[in-house]
Write a structure and sequence with these properties.
- It is a single chain.
- This protein is an alpha+beta fold.
- Among the domains are: 46-56 and 307-381, Beta Barrel (conserved putative lor/sdh protein from methanococcus maripaludis s2 fold); 60-69 and 212-305, Efflux pump adaptor protein, beta barrel domain (Elongation Factor Tu (Ef-tu), domain 3, Beta Barrel); 104-179, Helix Hairpins.
- The protein contains 5 helices and 22 strands.
- The strands form 6 sheets. It has a 6-stranded antiparallel sheet. A 4-stranded antiparallel sheet has the order 2-15-20-19, with no helix packed on it. It has a 4-stranded antiparallel sheet with strand order 7-6-4-9.
- A hairpin with a 2-residue loop joins strand 19 (342-347) and strand 20 (350-355).
- Helix 2 (105-140) packs antiparallel against helix 3.
- 24% of the residues are buried.
Length: 403
């Protein structure tokens, strides 16, 4: 009985092991199921703006320097000893104000001598005319000879010439006497250096002082020929570009303050300076209170030049690549494609694009970093800058700021 029971237990163990081995075999031979593929990500959401053409005011800014409207060198017209200076050196003088006095005694004597000679010449002329009249009467009575009549005519003509000469001498003497008092021809500040009293002044040579007329004031600035051509691309002639009727000029000081008086373009050079390659232009400003000083550096800002039918692209939409700047244009099928553009000028709210885009194009202005060329995007409309309003003073100089 015990043997039979032992054999039964062994048979049960063998059966269990066989069943276990068959299950492992069945498990190992069962084919494995493939993992499920992850779902495709949705297209990135980007902000898209539709471009519109509009008239854009172009900001122009240049470096300028103030110059005096008129700089007058004061020189004596007669020689003599400088008796007195009638003003304070460096002070502002008015038109007609006495500046210097030269010793007049020599010229007073010359005037007296010329006056005496003129009086004598007039007396001689009276005698010559009386002699002429007498000879004419005698000739009518056939008493005087032809020669005596001719001598009377010659004497009268000579006396008349002497009177004219002496009268001219008197006028010259009077002018020389007036020139001993030197007056200011213009209003403005004088230079700080002048000859000391008692100095011998040489006519036309000795520089007494310099007067700078400040009102109005000139401001000189320059631009390059390439900048001029860039401005002419807006289909205007160079004369219209700087016409005072269309263009206004403002000044800004180094500390950012704006000069209250607007100015106008006065004139510009028709040639290019070979030393600097620039074209000199001059503006004129009212300077009643003397706020503009010669030699002062300022920023010149021109307004009034408008570019018609311009396309303005937000700065955030522009990227840089090996071939230059480009933007992403969203096609009707929502595919974003890179397009090279040519930038013309930077504005406070974007760039003017001269080539590569047109009105109606949709460009990516928000989320550019999420775009892959040729991939589908989810466009969300946003507003784009039109550039129609006049920009503020943050514009770049003509032709400047190009990437």
């Amino acid at each position: 009985m015990k043997l039979r029971a032992l054999i039964g237990r062994i048979a049960a163990v063998v059966l269990v092991l066989a069943l276990a081995g068959g299950g492992v075999y069945l498990f190992m031979t069962q084919p494995a199921k493939a993992p499920a593929a992850p779902p495709a990500p949705p297209p990135p959401q980007v902000g898209v703006a539709e471009l519109k053409a509009a008239d854009v005011a172009l900001p122009l800014e240049f470096s300028g320097r103030v110059a005096g409207f008129r700089v007058v060198e004061i020189r004596a017209q007669v020689s003599g000893v400088l008796l007195k200076r009638e003003y304070l050196e460096g002070a502002v003088v008015d038109i007609g104000q006495v500046l210097f006095r030269i010793d007049p005694r020599t010229y007073e004597a010359s005037l007296a001598r010329a006056a005496a000679q003129a009086a004598q010449a007039k007396a001689t002329l009276i005698q010559a005319e009386e002699n002429y009249n007498r000879q004419v009467g005698l000739a009518a009575q056939k008493v005087a000879t032809q020669k005596s009549l001719e001598d009377a005519i010659a004497g009268r003509d000579q006396a008349r010439a002497n009177v004219q000469s002496t009268e001219a001498d008197v006028l010259t003497a009077k002018l020389n006497l007036e020139f001993t008092v030197i007056k200011a021809p213009v209003k403005g500040p004088t230079s700080l250096v002048s000859p000391a009293e008692g100095t011998l002044i040489q006519a036309q040579q000795t520089l007494l002082t310099t007067i700078t007329q400040l009102d109005p004031a000139y401001v000189n600035f320059t631009f390059t020929d390439s900048e001029l051509r860039s401005l002419q691309e807006i289909d205007r002639s160079s004369e219209e570009l700087f016409d005072p009727a269309h263009v206004k000029v403002e000044l800004q000081f180094g500390d950012g303050a704006t000069y209250p008086e607007p100015g106008t373009v006065d004139t510009r050079s028709r040639t290019i300076d070979p030393r600097t390659g620039t074209i000199l232009t001059r503006a004129i400003f009212a300077n009643h209170d003397g706020g503009l000083l010669p030699g002062q550096f300022v920023r010149v800002k021109m307004t009034g030049i408008t570019m018609p039918n311009a396309i303005v692209v937000p700065k955030a939409a522009i990227s840089q690549g090996p071939l230059g700047p480009y933007v992403y244009v969203v096609e009707p099928d929502s595919v974003a494609r890179a397009r090279q553009v040519r930038l013309y000028r930077e504005l406070p709210d974007g760039w003017i694009v001269r080539k590569g885009l047109q009105a109606g194009d949709r460009i990516v202005v928000d989320g550019v970093i999420r775009v892959r060329p040729g991939n589908v995007v989810k466009p969300v409309p946003v507003a784009a800058p039109s550039g129609a309003k006049a920009p503020d003073a943050a514009g770049q100089p003509a032709g400047g700021g190009k990437p």
